[in-house]
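User: Some background: our group keeps a shared notebook of sequences we're curious about, and every so often someone picks one and asks for a predicted structure to add to the entry. Today it's my turn. The entry only has the sequence so far, pasted here. Could you supply the structure so I can complete it?
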Amino acid sequence: MKTLYARRYVSPRTRPLTPDEVCTRNIAYALKEPRRFPEAVEIAAEEMALLIADEPRAVLVPIPTSQGDTGPNRTLANEIARRMNGTGRVIAALARRTPVESSCQR
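Assistant: Of course. Here's the predicted structure to add to the notebook entry:
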């Protein structure tokens, strides 16, 4: 089984970002608020669905946030699966028992 990622996320703390990396960062932050930025979900879902189009039985697992919420990631996973014409499935298989420090704070 392969694990595929749409884009590599680069921290601006490591080096100056390229214009494409700035775009990726902006989309990543917008995806945290799918109701406020539905166009970000559309952009990301389209790109991610194309990346896994050759996977006939793709399983999408929403990752919980540091506080345990899978809502935004489930929204994105559902949209990706919808674009896969019935070949993708979303399974909420992960949960957090307790909150953890966010990666931004780390």
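Suggested note for the entry: The beta strands are 59-60, 89-90. The helical segments are 19-30, 38-51, 71-83.
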